[in-house]
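Hi Y.,

Following your request, here is the sequence exactly as I used it, all 305 residues.
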Amino acid sequence: MPLGRSLEHVNQPQDLYDVVPELWESVRGIDAPFIHLLDGFLDAGKVTHGMAAHLLRTCHPERVATFDVDVLHDYRSRRPIMTFDTFQWTAITMPHLVLDKLTDEAGRPFLLMHGQEPDSRWERMVEATLSICDELGVGRLYTASGIPLAVPHTRLTGITRHATQQDLAHDNPPLIERMDVPGQWSAMLELRAGEAGRVAMGYVAHVPHYLSQVQFPQAVKAALESLMNDTGLRVPMGDLPEEILENNELIDSEIAGSAETMELVAALEDAFDTAHDRAAPVPTADEIAAEFEQFLADREQDQNP
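Below is the corresponding structure, written out as tokens. Let me know if you'd prefer a different format.
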């Protein structure tokens, strides 16, 4: 069934996507890791977007399936960018949601779902995705994101794991016991996967709160390394090390122009190093909640100036 189908034609989960038969069959039954990295509401340091972009740049994507964004996307809340040139409209950047086959340095294939988070039919999209996993024989699902914390950019980026099984969330600092936050589709997919007895997990990079609204490639690298450790994938680093160096130089240059910011970073470094020496390099739950609420408020202000 072609894309752009009417609403009455999307009652079944499989009606939400079209596949490329040859590529679809090439990943059937090989237990390829399934990574889902969707642009959505929460992405401190642009970790989710940056990781997806890096994988697409370095791992030779081939299209496996395309989802029908016309029935999943709210065009009035997230309007496509159009180009007007002199006297006419010349281009439009349409939203997309796709599933690609990628290949790592060792020739091992894996799957990447990327594009815009669906605005509607979340439950049906979860059903569709888990149905795809069933048909292709996918064993585990993975995702990554960032959270703003009171940590300095001059120290190694911390990672917190979450998973459908407690033993998979190993080596975690005790960040917080419970907190209610706005939902994300990828988080809902992991929740439903766990309820269905599947294994799903993800990585949350600790992004300096003062950099939460900009790209922070250092956090992308940390999440990517965690993914490789758990999956055995060998993803090329590509230009990521150079991006990190350039980004840190830019940050240091900006900070050098503000005595107040320099004092803030120095204080964060002292607190981080002291906590690390005590084998507990984490902020309090109240501090985490405060930083997260500020991140949400800043994002809301950016979206509604």
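Residues 15-303 form a domain with the Rossmann fold fold (CATH 3.40.50.10900).

Thanks again,
Q.
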